[in-house]
Amino acid sequence: MAKSASEISRLNAKSTIKSVSKSDSEVVTTSSVLNRPTPIFPEPPHLTTHGDAQIISVVNQKGGVGKTTTTINLGAAFAELGRRVLLIDFDPQHSLSVGLNVSTREIEGSIYDLMMDESTKIDDFLLKTSVPGMDMVPAHENLAGAEGGLVSVIAREKILKRVLDPVRDFYDVILIDCQPSLGLLTVNALTASNWVLVPLECEYFALRGVALLDDIIKKVQVNTNPDLKLLGILPTMFDRKTVHSREVLERISEAFPSKICDTTIARTVRFPETTVAGEPITSYASSSVGAASYRRLARELISIGGVR
Ligand SMILES: Nc1ncnc2c1ncn2[C@@H]1O[C@H](COP(=O)(O)OP(=O)(O)OP(=O)(O)O)[C@@H](O)[C@H]1O
Ligand SMILES: [Mg+2]
Fold it and tell me: Which atom of ligand 1 lies closest to the CA of 65?
């Protein structure tokens, strides 16, 4: 007999509470690197009601810049702050599912089925993760076929929005992990979203391609989602030891003075380790700088109003 979603989620259930976390002082910030005053992002108020989820697409058409790592760890950090979080694996490579220990052999259905079959309900596809308060919808390789399959569908850019609408009232934040392309799936994610978060690797050619991404965002704003806004550009893989990383950060900051996140994510081997472990860094290495960075990023995004 096939496993139900709840049976699978119990397989993955484990506590995330471990040791004391590192303080913000060890997190590399844009302001400290650029010799500016460093803002403090306090712990946000506890939520007494939930719902009206803010939907955030994590997008960059460049591969390997930290989209999936950001989706998992930022989601876990929001959940630690008492927010109800849903992660959508929207990449046929299904790295988010792998990173949360969900095997595509075990799942009964994925985001592909929700997109392609209107009779399916998202409630039947939600899986609990090892993080209390954080659920996910997995992906499968078959998602690669969705772009072709949707070509003749009416309002094909709005399918993911239709899929997510029924659970917006339950969650506080929904994060969509996009694939490294700007095709129809990414347009679906942007059409369903309030916000775009762009992880940008701190390397010389990082800004190449951002103009193209900006173009797509504008097209989506004009055609399918006038409310879409850029939440932030998140510098990732920052290496404190190189002048190069600092120069790239300066250039990102010049290009996006009001949109560059103050929190940066440093390059550390702890992140690849967490993928192998199948859990977020906030539980795998709770006291690491990487965990502190994503916790600070969550508070920063709440303080600028991206999430309640
Ligand atoms: N800050 C970091 N320091 C070191 N390694 C990292 C960091 N962030 C992510 N990684 C590693 O880099 C690789 C790519 O990261 P990730 O999968 O998050 O990128 P992505 O943008 O989602 O890639 P894709 O475009 O293929 O979906 C992974 O092995 C991940 O563990
Ligand atoms: Mg990815």
Answer: 21
Task: Name the residue at shortest CA distance from atom 23 of ligand 1.
Answer: 64
Domains and CATH numbers, the chain: 5-303 (3.40.50.300)
Q: Which one-letter DSSP state was computed for residue 144?
A: G
- Pick the residue whose CA is nearest to atom 18 on ligand 1: 66
Distance 11 CA to ligand 1 centre (A): 26
Q: Is 136 helix (H, G, I), strand (E, B) or coil?
A: strand
Closest by CA to 107, choosing from 11, 5, 1, is 5
Q: What is the pLDDT of residues 9-30, one digit of tens each?
A: 433 433 343 444 568 999 999 9
CA of 180 to the centre of ligand 2 (A): 7
- As a whole number of angstroms, the distance between CA 8 and CA 136 comes to 12
Q: What is the pTM of this model?
A: 0.94
Tens-place pLDDT, residues 181-235:
999 999 999 999 999 999 999 998 888 889 999 999 999 999 999 999 999 999 9
Regarding the beta carbon of 237 and ligand 1, being less than 6 Å apart is answered yes
Which is it for strands 54-58 and 173-178: parallel, antiparallel or unpaired? Answer: parallel
pLDDT band, very low/low/confident/very high, at 265 (cuts 50, 70, 90): very high
Query: What are the tens digits of pLDDT across the range 248-259?
Result: 999 999 999 999
